[in-house]
Write a structure and sequence with these properties.
mainly alpha; two-stranded antiparallel ribbon; 14 helices; 4 strands
């Protein structure tokens, strides 16, 4: 989309909204494998429309009510509590209790809750006690969380989702917080970033999930001054000469890491150290001429990179852009527009 390396084209808001709507309706053949994670895919598409401020103008109430109903169809009850499944593909009946093979998924549950908040649902159908029980059932003996109660495929992404759900519920009673915080600490690398699991290589995405998870705690679990300095230095070193961020050192920049690394820096109060103008120019070059944003210039777009690129642009406004790049305030901890995050925090907890 950009016309020259030193200029920034208008943000193609209508094109990006059209791309989100297309993917909500029917996935392109190149991305059909994402159907097994349709709840997360819908979150990225609805989140794109929400960040652009175009949800109501680009969809009608009948469509939005249809999506609300579809998300609630994914709420499943079973022996480990209640949560949301990725889509219908693993379930033979919406009325039957789930089994270990068709159990809900903690990442899909986090994205379902935010999607319903985007759609301004009142959450009267949410089984809050069952949801809290489900999150607790996903915690493993080392403090980490599996994606489902029957799986031990834990990493920092699932820990973040567990913390985000507990934060939205305002109920941390079902999990061992101290054990979870200790697990996060074991994922820290010598560089200052965090790997997916203990002893893993530091990655931008899991560093965000670690930092955000710690800041979601009611009383926080701050890093020491030295740890904070190390983490900020490592994250800043991932902003490349192109303006984009890479997920780890000496790798190519990727638009999604503009959010993951940029979000972690923002949470730690170091966002002012990011080169905002260079970041915006990189995101501009990732715009696809027919709508959507890709991981890198010249690539094909997808809902994941479109949403996270717009989230990064929401956090880091640049003085070199026109009004098409203006966004409403963004909540870095829950990864949603601030108004949507406030809605979630108001309606998801049980009535007091």
């Amino acid at each position: 989309m950009a016309q020259a390396m030193d200029t920034v084209a208008p943000l193609a808001r209508s094109g990006h909204a059209a791309h989100a709507n297309r993917c909500l309706t029917a996935l392109p053949a190149s991305q059909i494998e994402l159907d097994s994670s349709k709840v997360a895919l819908a979150y990225y598409c609805l989140g794109t429309l929400d960040l652009l401020g175009l949800l109501e103008s680009k969809t009608n109430e009948r469509e939005r009510e249809g999506w609300r109903a579809w998300f609630w169809e994914q709420q499943a009850r079973g022996p480990h509590g209640t949560a949301f499944t990725p889509s219908h593909f693993m379930r033979t009946s919406l009325e039957e209790e789930y089994t270990d093979e068709s159990a809900p998924h903690i990442i899909m549950t986090y994205t379902a809750l935010l999607s319903l908040a985007i759609l301004r649902d009142d959450f009267t159908r949410l089984d809050r006690k069952g949801l809290s029980r489900f999150v607790g059932s996903c915690q493993l003996s080392d403090g980490s969380f599996g994606t489902t109660p029957a799986r031990a495929d834990a990493d920092l992404r699932t820990t973040y989702c567990a913390f985000a759900i507990c934060s939205m519920l305002r109920n941390w009673s079902a999990i061992d917080v101290d054990a979870a915080v200790a697990y996060i600490a074991r994922c820290r690398s010598f560089e200052g970033g965090y790997g997916q699991a203990p002893y893993g290589e530091a990655l931008g995405g899991t560093t965000y999930t670690a930092i955000a998870a710690l800041h979601l705690l009611p009383n926080g679990a701050p890093l020491t001054p030295l740890e904070r300095t190390q983490t900020i230095r490592w994250l800043l070193a991932n902003q490349t000469s192109s303006g984009g961020f890479s997920g780890r050192l000496n790798k190519d920049p990727d638009a999604c890491y503009c959010f993951w690394c940029g979000g972690a820096l923002k949470i730690m109060g170091a966002g002012h150290l990011v080169n905002e103008e260079a970041l915006t120019k990189f995101l501009d070059r990732c715009q696809f001429r027919y709508g959507g944003i890709s991981k890198a210039p010249g690539e094909h777009p997808d809902p994941y990179h479109t949403y996270l690129s717009l989230a990064a642009a929401s956090m880091y406004p640049s003085s070199t852009t026109d009004e098409t790049w203006a966004f409403k305030p963004f909540d870095c901890l829950l990864n949603a527009r601030e108004e949507t995050a406030q809605w979630a925090r108001k309606y998801i907890p049980a009535a007091r």
